[in-house]
Amino acid sequence: ANLVSDYCHGVRHSPNECRCLSVVWKFDGEFRLLRHPSKVVLCCARVETLVIFLGVLNNEAMGAIVAVIGDKVRFEVRVAGKPTPKVTWYKDGEELLESRRVEIKEDGDTHTITLKDLTMRDEAKYSCKAVNQKGEASDKAQLTVKEPVAPAIKGLKDQEASTGSTVKFQATITGIPAPDVVWKKDGKELSASHRITISSDVESESYSLIIQDVDDDFGQYTCKASNSAGETEANAMLTLKGEPPVFIKELEDVRININEEAVFHARIKGNPTPSVTWLLNGTILNDSEETILTQQGDSYTLKIKCVTSHEIGEVVCKAKNTSGQASSKASLTLTESAPTIA
Asked: For a pLDDT cut of 70, what percent of the chain falls above it?
């Protein structure tokens, strides 16, 4: 065959001397087509290539690999060359042979070894060497085998949040192998949604749960971590952020006739729920047949039956919780009427 082009990467070569260790040779008619990012170079069909490693499909660059006792690991490479290279695997420099726990396979230009049921004796430097008449290529990787370690959870803390806010639970979770992590609320497993984000960073051992637009989300949250060595969990509470009492409906003045019933009503919000005290002219009122004190939700009511001149005066409602206190006042007076003679 005639030499169509004797340039490779812009450098002139004599026939049959075009070589490259980072490309794939492919047939194009009777010629081999050398594909390059910036050019196409044709060489005659009789060219034989050096052994070429096309890259590692599994375990990038065959670098450092960490596995756990009992695990299974696989090394996989692709090798090209003409004549077809002979591929040999090594463990710490000694040829690795197939056995009950070592599986060696070849599928076209793909070569793999699989190590099953790992033990500490499998920790070593593994290498792959490919050789043909034109040259050789090799790659290597360090396999580290570790004892499994049960998960441990640190840093999960109780949170307070206001309605409509965003809250984040975060924990550091360790373990070998890296644990599977599940988040629960009041015993029910949570899934990611438009309001809930579950994230993990195995490398930094950081795991988080983010809840947006907090509403009916208060309760107990559980983080559960498990791996082959065991499992553990940690709990944290999400509570409504403390709010001091606020009168959303103030007391109103009451004017009645003697011996009639007087009713005072207020609405109070706060977190925790406030404790409420009623006073009449500075004296604390207790629930009785004559003074009835009731509460329903955020609604508080005082009823004074059969009012006499002794009950005329100032009524005060005081609300208090751990975040603060508030009060509201109103007057109780008698309706004026013209004197009558019986």
From this structure: 80
d(CA 6, CA 8): 7
| 150-162 burial: b if 16+ Cβ within 10 Å, else e | bbbbeebeebebe
Residue 339's pLDDT is: 56
* Tokens, residue 184: 């629960």
pLDDT tens per residue, range 85-99: 999 999 999 999 999
- Taking only the tens place, the pLDDT of each residue in 117-140 is 999 999 999 999 999 998 999 999
C-alpha 21, offset from chain centre: 43
Rounded CA-CA distance 36/74 in Å is 31
Number of H helices, E strands in the chain: 0, 32
Contact 209, 224 (CB under 8 A): no
User: Please, are residues 12 and 6 in contact by the beta-carbon 8 Å criterion?
Assistant: yes
CATH fold, domain 149-240, is Immunoglobulin-like (2.60.40)
Given pLDDT bands bounded at 50, 70 and 90, which one contains residue 63?
A: low
142 close to 162: Cβ distance less than 8 angstroms: no
Say if domain 243-334 classifies as CATH 2.60.40.10. Answer: yes
Percentage of the chain beyond pLDDT 90 is 69
Tokens, residue 204: 């930094």
Structure tokens at 254: 């009451």
Q: Which phi and psi angles does 60 have, rounded to 5°? A: -50, 135
Q: Please, what is the average pLDDT of the chain? A: 83
Cα 340 → chain centroid: 81
Q: Tell me the two tokens of residue 31.
A: 């010629």
Q: Which CATH number fits domain 52-146: 3.30.450.20, 3.40.50.720, 2.60.40.10, 3.30.450.40?
A: 2.60.40.10
What is the location of CATH 2.60.40.10 in the chain?
Answer: 52-146, 149-240, 243-334
